[in-house]
Amino acid sequence: MSEPHLHEPSERRPRHLDSLTGLRGIAAWLVVLYHIRLSLVSILPPGVIAVLARGYLAVDLFFVLSGFVMWYNYAVPLASGGPRAAARFLWRRMARIWPLHLLILGGFVLFRAALNVSGRPVEGLPLDELPLQVLLIQNWGFTHELAWNHPAWSISTEFAAYLMFPAIVAAGQPIMGRRRLAIAIAALLLAGEYALFTHRGLRTLGADIPTMGLWRCLIGFMLGTLACVIWQAARSPRAWPWALFATGWIALGSVAGWPETAIVPPAIVTAMLALIYDKGPLARFLASHAAVWLGEVSYSTYLAHAFLFLVFKLLFVDASLQIGWAELAAYLLLLLIASWALYRLIEKPAQRWLNARTPGWTRPLPASPAE
Q1: What span, in angstroms and rounded, lies between the C-alpha atoms of 246 and 272?
Q2: Domain extents for the chain?
């Protein structure tokens, strides 16, 4: 969920696919509302709370988007650049995700220290797991429950996907430009994901994140790379077949009572392809300045929102843990401001500083609008 811009390949001037940037921004706020939904039951009807309770599915969209962006920007240079290009790629990804993660994690460490000093109970902040958190490997099957900054579990799994990506590129060379083969492999991956969750007795994608989250990410990431291959290979792209498939699949699965693991992943991939090809009102809305801005700061929004809400509740919310409209508006405004500040003052400067110090023995990669 951490890529600001995409652009469309062209022999002339490339056109940014701002609609996907805006989509990521909206998805980040769905995750925010998902995490605070239980504090909104006094002001929102049960039906709305039930919708917000599915906001975790936006994370699966992030995984697919990430795979798409990585393949588009780096598949060709990594395929021809060898190990030194892979090292440069991994350095760039570290520069992109690590600084802000460490800053927010540091905030949790200070919060834990404050709890200790005040004599309050400490829950969900185990010191023995802190090294895993620092290294961003906490969701690689080493733990049994989420701890510290819960949203960072997906960044941990994305880091694993980045480490695997050069190998994915090497293995994926035979499918470049082969649209039907890419579709067939994507179908096999989707079937494999459904079978994996079914074997574990799980019907939802958000179940057992410490064990299944890594698989959920890697499969979604690879589906994103295949979606990019499909997009690049299309000779006469049309949005409506993909939109029709996504809509029909959701309707069929809902009527038939299929589990979420069978309905959602195919719908995400096909709906995203429909959006890439679409030129209509939805695409224009997601490409608007406001939506694109939300997408640009979405990594900061995603990583900071849980910590900010934790502090907000301690300062302004009573024992009921329920907030009213005024408190909700205040929190959302604070999160917007914090997202902008973290993006401008921490995230981008740290990324530029680290990229300027990329080891000289790595092979240069072309500048990417995703960074």
Answers
A1: 9
A2: 7-355
